[in-house]
Write a structure and sequence with these properties.
Layout: E1 13-14, H1 16-19, E2 25-29, H2 33-38, E3 45-46, H3 52-64, H4 67-93, E4 98-102, H5 108-119, E5 124-127, H6 130-145, E6 150-155, H7 162-171, H8 179-183, H9 201-213, E7 219-223, E8 228-229, E9 232-233, H10 236-243, E10 246-251, H11 254-265, H12 271-281, H13 288-299, H14 303-323, E11 330-333, H15 337-348
Parallel strand pairs: 1-5, 2-3, 2-4, 4-5, 6-7, 6-10, 10-11
Antiparallel strand pairs: 8-9
Helix pairs in contact: 3-4, 6-9, 7-15, 11-14, 12-13, 13-14
Length: 352
């Protein structure tokens, strides 16, 4: 049954906590495309009141001339697109019961859009406090909801297929969260190669919050990570829950690991250049001859052998130190991704 937000709205506003109890609504982010790209509420649509350059122009007028001049410029800017915006809102109104507008702080931008479309007969509301209040709510709520979950954490050396195993487990109705997928980074020095780096810290936190909030059960399987996944930091509440999670060590033969690495990296544009660039940053951490050998193999296009060299001389010794710091509830040797899925599901039965 559809919930009519409009009927229980107070002063045509709703806060995010109340919104979580509703259905059949759409959130419209009326901030600039740049603001929207940097971070937004997952699942929203961007219909900006002002475009990036228009917001700069209006802000400059406000500071150097007057509030009235800024308002005038803002009205002139939005009026050019009002016809197209109305068409979008009209289309959305046929699919959703209520349209919720929000801006940075729940001020003039979202207020004007809410009032205008309400006056035209649409069921609209403004998100109280805007994006700022949403951020404050989820960061506070995050600390509460992580207390309810248990994490099963897959540890293992580079190339053991932990992410692929997670994806297969997810397909078989095992509750999982792919932290590297949310961060858009594979979590190593080479983890950004072939992946567009457009994930902000705030967006990662929002996606992680949603994944935990909307879980189907309280036991979630994830991959073991360091505190940072590339440039992204795992939030304190989730990190603290990871530290007390049930840890499973996944091991695999080196040839299988190399197969997985080649599958992940083959076909990436400018792969050689990217590998050489990262290798230069790792030079101080590696033995000089090992580093030179890696460079030589990459330049000759022998990527598999270069990967073997990097694993043996750098990653495996590094991971051995890290892995030895943990005590594991279980250890499993796998021969393939499917073998890993089957064996892990058997282990999971112990923790049901």
């Amino acid at each position: 049954m559809k919930t009519n937000i409009h009927d229980d709205m107070n002063k045509n506003e709703i806060n995010y906590k109340e919104l979580l109890e509703k259905n059949n609504y759409i959130l419209i982010d009326v901030r600039t495309p740049k603001e929207y790209q940097e971070s937004t509420i997952p699942g929203t649509i961007n219909i900006p009141v002002l475009l990036d350059e228009e917001r700069v122009m209006v802000g400059t007028a406000y500071k150097k001339e007057s509030q009235e001049k800024a308002k005038q410029l803002g009205i002139e800017a939005i009026s050019k697109r009002l016809g197209d915006i109305t068409k979008q809102i009209n289309k959305l109104s046929k699919e959703y019961d209520t349209i919720i507008f929000f801006c940075a702080r729940g001020g003039m931008r979202s207020g004007s859009m809410t009032s205008f479309f309400k006056s035209m007969g649409y069921k609209t509301a403004r998100l109280s406090g805007g994006y700022k209040s949403y951020r404050a709510f989820i960061m506070e709520d995050f600390e509460s909801i992580v207390q309810e979950i248990t994490l099963i954490i897959l540890h293992g050396k580079t190339g053991t297929g932990k992410t692929k195993i997670l994806n297969e487990l997810h397909k078989r109705d095992v509750e999982t969260i792919d932290l590297e997928g949310l961060a858009k980074n594979r979590g190593s020095h080479f983890g950004h190669i072939g992946i567009p780096q457009d994930r902000s810290q705030k967006t990662f936190e929002s996606l992680l919050y949603d994944a935990v909030k909307h879980r189907k059960n309280n036991v979630i399987t994830i991959e073991g990570e360091s505190r940072k996944i590339g440039p992204i930091h795992i939030p304190d509440p989730f990190w603290d829950t990871m530290k007390v999670g049930m840890k499973i060590l996944v091991e695999a033969p080196i040839e299988m690991r190399l197969d997985i690495i080649m599958d992940d990296y083959t076909g990436i544009d400018q792969l050689k250049e990217n590998l050489l660039e990262v290798a230069e940053k790792l030079k101080r951490y590696m033995d000089g001859s090992a580093h030179s050998k890696f460079i030589d193999l990459v330049e000759k296009g022998k990527i598999r052998e270069a990967a073997r060299q990097m694993m043996i001389e750098y990653y495996d010794p590094m991971y051995n130190k890290s892995l030895n710091k943990h005590s594991y509830h279980s250890e499993v040797m796998i021969e393939s991704i499917e073998d890993g899925v089957v064996k892990l599901k058997e282990i999971f039965k112990k923790y049901k």
